[in-house]
Design brief:
By secondary structure, this protein is of the alpha+beta class. It has four domains: 133 residues, Alpha Horseshoe (Serine Threonine Protein Phosphatase 5, Tetratricopeptide repeat); 284 residues, TolB, C-terminal domain (Neuraminidase, 6 Propeller), CATH 2.120.10.30; 87 residues, Carboxypeptidase-like, regulatory domain (Immunoglobulin-like); 115 residues, 2-Layer Sandwich (60s Ribosomal Protein L30, Chain: A), CATH 3.30.1330. Helix content is 24%, strand content 29%. Strands 2, 3, 4, 5 and 6 form a five-stranded antiparallel β-sheet that branches. The radius of gyration is 29 Å and the shape is globular.
Length: 663
């Protein structure tokens, strides 16, 4: 009975797709391949579809429809010359092939032969009724062609070059991001040496991984890209979204069958050894939802996250949102940027300039010349300006996306599919020496870029720990706040400001006396300079009997694979002293963090680290400390303090850290 049902289903499906078979005689075997190829194409597995159609082509080289289908596959893969070859042969074999003029128009459009594209689009248009024309995109494409002609007639003064084999490969390379100091470059690739070397069943391409390259000042070149060090890459999709302004955090796109519901935004932090921690998901509902989220970028002050989501109640397929930071791990309700920015089509690749008010993104719905184009919008008095196409040759008749730029406004990076590429999409570098892309005007004279970096650490001068609070910067010329940011749990801050100005920089926290100093922030025409200003701040009410060394204890170590702590008498005395210190600091808790080396499996190490932390917590509880005053967590091997390549390093990483933290 099951065999009969399966046969009936096959006959039904075959009857549906019979229109895809020309009147010529074709073998049953090739008909089955044709059905399978069409299914692959509809599922966007263009390479698999192309392989099947090529097999059929061996017996059906003069079949117009097979030539047409091969052309469609090449067009979907961006191989425009091959697409045209098969489209033109298909048209020669059958002048009345349905959709051929539309496909020829799209291929010539992508190639940049706009006159031929318009000619073919008009031929296709003439075959449509008025009702059909309302539902078709041909008028949209014709408008793009005319706009492309106008932009190509007045190209902007930039130079664009492929970043070369140190960065690009024969596989798709895209989604670049550069740290604000211009030294760290990350991007996504689907090359053959990704972790696990697995392929996605959906399109049969290799899974995405994040790659990293570093700038060598002596040679003025980027190093050969390697899979990023640490625990970002897995055997599934891991893609770079952006690196944080200070270079210590990376926003990552992850799509794993058993973990994410579609695609979600994660965050990874750089450890003291230079390796990146296992990414943790951004908050549900505010940032991540059950829908597709991607393309995240943080403002230079770290306070606002811009990202793309396909959640409900948007204006199109993917919309740009923003969320304000509440704390290090909490974010406010996501706000759609509205119909000025978002269209009924697709917006991707969001980048917020270090000035905090200039937004770059790619779109198919604004005034484009073909595929995705890069646009610029400015936030003025709380409203976004109408997006402006960055112009030709940055934008081409193909897909141009994931635009980012350096702090000095001199260099941009983005992904594009061009004739000088290594294979599929490549990462390109744009030189803005003669064109101000933020203002959209030519540069008549060489300009010194105005932005510089101010960073530092705020330290409690009594307990010698970092302090959370607000950093604000006042421009004495206007007596207005030029910028503000917050310190992290270690008291560190990072902010981008106009350079060559002496500012008043202040720090506020309700438990500490206000502190304000003058800081000269110097800028340079050849590089982005960093000024470091640290603060030692004083409490309004001093703690009593304070010994700073008791507020952080890191010397409780463990033997390999042992959950049993062997606490020496000296270590017990140290822990007892920490507990006694807690009695004099009622506003504090004891934070207990467990860690392991990387020798075991991830799940085992995580459980082991928590067991170790719980062991210490139990000791502290037995000394009379209430459980509510304990913060216990295990991190596995995520946060090493030494390389795990030697026994000495692994021994250092098998530890529990005890720290007094303020509520």
């Amino acid at each position: 009975m099951k065999k009969l049902a399966a046969l009936a289903l096959l006959i039904t499906f075959f009857s549906i797709t019979i229109a895809d078979t020309p009147a010529l005689q074709i073998s049953f075997k090739d008909k089955m391949k044709q059905i399978k190829a069409k299914m692959k194409y509809q599922n966007e597995d263009y390479k698999a579809a192309l392989r099947l159609y090529r097999d059929i082509y061996l017996n059906e080289a003069e079949n117009a429809l097979i030539n047409y289908r091969i052309g469609q596959c090449h067009l979907a893969l961006g191989s425009v010359n091959e697409a045209l070859e098969y489209f033109e042969k298909a048209y020669m074999l059958d002048n009345y092939l349905d959709g051929i003029h539309s496909s020829l128009g799209q291929a010539y459009h992508l190639k940049g032969d706009l006159d031929r594209a318009v000619e073919e689009y008009n031929k296709y248009k003439s075959t449509l009724s008025e009702k059909q024309l309302l539902k078709d995109d041909v008028l949209f494409y014709l408008k793009q062609c005319e706009y492309a002609k106008s932009l190509m007639a007045k190209p902007i003064k930039v130079t664009i070059k492929n970043m070369g084999s140190n960065i690009n490969s024969e596989y798709p390379d895209y989604a670049p991001s550069v740290s604000l100091d211009g030294k760290t470059f990350i991007f996504t690739s689907r090359r053959s040496d990704t972790k696990g070397k697995g392929r996605d069943n959906y399109d049969h391409g290799y899974y995405e991984d994040v790659y990293e390259s570093n700038y060598d000042e002596s040679t003025k070149t980027w190093s050969v890209a390697e899979g990023i060090k640490g625990r970002i890459n897995t055997v599934f999709h891991d893609a770079s979204m952006s690196i944080s302004p200070d270079g210590t955090e990376i926003f990552v796109y992850k799509n794993a069958p058993t973990t994410t519901k579609s695609g979600d935004i994660y965050i990874s932090r750089k450890g003291s050894t230079g390796k990146w921690s296992k990414p943790k998901p951004m908050p549900q509902k505010t940032i991540n939802t059950s829908y597709f989220e991607s393309s995240a970028c943080l403002t230079a002050d770290g306070n606002i996250l811009y990202f793309v989501s396909e959640r409900k109640k948007g204006y199109g397929h993917g919309d740009i949102y923003r969320s304000k930071r509440i704390s290090r791990s909490e974010w406010g309700e996501a706000e759609n940027l509205g119909p000025v920015i978002n269209t009924d089509k697709d917006e991707i690749g969001v980048f917020i300039h270090p000035d905090g008010k200039t937004l770059f993104f790619s779109s198919k719905g604004h005034e484009c010349i073909g595929g995705y184009d890069v646009f610029r919008s400015t936030l003025v008095d709380g409203k976004w300006s109408k997006p402006i196409n960055l112009g030709y040759p940055i934008n081409t008749t193909g897909d141009d996306a994931h635009f980012v730029m350096t702090t000095d406004n001199q260099t941009g990076y983005y992904a594009s599919l061009r004739s000088d590429g290594f294979g599929e999409k490549d990462v390109y570098e744009i030189n803005f020496e003669k064109y101000d892309i933020v203002q959209g005007v030519e540069i008549k004279e060489k300009q010194i870029h105005s932005l510089a970096i101010l960073k530092g650490t705020v330290t409690d001068n009594q307990i010698l720990q970092g302090v959370k609070g607000k950093i604000y910067v006042i421009d004495p010329a206007t007596n207005e706040i030029a910028g503000s940011t917050t310190t992290d749990e270690n008291g560190q801050y990072f902010i981008i400001l106009p350079g060559n100005i002496e500012y008043e920089v202040g720090f506020t926290n309700e438990k500490f006396k206000n502190s304000k100093v003058k800081v000269k922030l110097v800028a340079d025409e050849n590089t982005t300079l960093t000024t470091i200003k640290n603060f030692d701040v004083e409490r309004k009410e001093q703690l009593i009997f304070v010994k700073p060394e008791l507020f952080e204890v890191q010397n409780i170590l463990f033997k390999l694979a042992s959950a049993q702590l062997e606490i020496s008498e000296a270590s017990k005395k140290q822990l007892d002293a920490v507990i006694k210190q807690l009695e004099t600091a009622p506003g504090f808790k004891i934070q207990i963090h467990g860690h392991t080396d990387d020798m075991g499996k991830e799940k085992y190490n995580l459980e082991l680290s928590l067991e170790r932390a719980d062991f210490i917590a139990q000791y502290v509880e037995n000394k009379g400390v209430e459980p509510i005053r304990l913060v216990v967590e295990g991190f596995g091997s995520d946060l090493p303090i030494a390389p795990n390549t030697t026994e000495e390093g692994r021994s250092s990483n098998r530890r529990v850290e005890v720290k007094l933290i303020e509520n």
